[in-house]
User: What shape does this take?
Amino acid sequence: MAVVLVLRARGLGDLLTTVPALRALRRARPGDHIALAAPHRLKPIVDLIASVDEMVPIHDTVGLRWDGESPALAVNLDGTEGIAELSRTKPERILTYRNPAFPDLPGPEWQPEMHDVDRWCHLLESDGIAADRRNLGLVPPVASTSHRNAVVVHIGAGATARRWPADRFAAVVRHLLVQDRDVVVTGDESERETALGVATRAGLSSARVLAGQQNLIELAATVAEAALVVCGDTGVAHLATAFGTRTVLLFGPNPPSRSGPPPHLLGRHAVLWAGQTGDPDADDIDPGLLKIGVPEVVNAVDKQLRKRPWPGTGLDRRAQQTFRRVG
Assistant: This one.
C-alpha cells in the first residue's frame, strides 16, 4: 500500500478550503494510505471530511515529524513554504506549486489572486487529478447542547487586523435582542473576556456567551444548526459555508475573492467588504474593515433573517449570492 503524505499546517479555515482537494485525492488513489499533517486541534473536523486514513499532528515549534516509510507522493497544500518539510520525509515525488528556492522541482506557478479552494484543486488538476470545487460540504456533528436557530455572533479572528470592533458587535447583538432573536456569542478561550464585554454592552445574559466554553466539535455543531452566523474572515465563516448556514461576513483586509465563500455557493452569504486590501496579520484593525459600519451589518442581518429558512443543511442552489461593497 503506497503512502500519500499531505501537508496542511495552518488553521481551521485553511483546512476547510482543502476539502475538495482532499476528496479528489481520495477518489484518485482509493487504495493508498493518505496521511494528513495538520495541527492536532483540527482532528474533529478532519474526521468529518472522511477522506484521510491517518492524521499526523504538527506543532508550531517543531513542525512536521514523520516516522513512517518514505511517501510515494507528498502533496504540499501549505503554500510554497512546506516544500522543505516534505523533502525531509524523502518522498518519491512532491506535488507542489513552484518555488524559486527549489528550481529543480516542477509544478504550476503560484497565483496570489486565486481563490484558496481553486488553488488546491488547480494543483491536483496539474497532476491529472480531477477535482470538484463544489465538494465542500460536511455532515453536521451532534453536540450535547443544542442552540438550534440561534444567531451566532462570532467576535474573534486569528489576527487583530481581521477583528471588527467589539462595541460594533455589541450594537448588532443589541439590535438582534430588540428583534427578539436568540443570540449566542462565540470565540476561543483567549477571546472570552471580549465576548463577555460584548454581552454586557448589549444586555445579553452571560449564559449566552459560549466563547471559551466549547470544544471545536461543539462550536461546529452550533454553527451547523444556527439560523445565521455573523463573523469576520475566520474559520467559523468556512464552517458555515461547509454546513450551508446563512452568514453575514465582514471582510478586510483580505478580499472575499480570495478567501470568501466560493461563487458557486449560491444564496447563503451576504459579504460586506470596503474594497481595499492590507496586511491580514497586522497588529491593528484593518482600516478597510473599520469602514464597515453597524448600519450596514444590521441591514444585511435583517435581510438574511427575512429569507425563508432552507430545510436541513443543504445548499440553496436557487438564489443568488450577495457580495455587497461598502463605502
In short: DSSP finds twelve helices and eleven strands in the chain. The first strand starts at residue 3 and ends at 7.
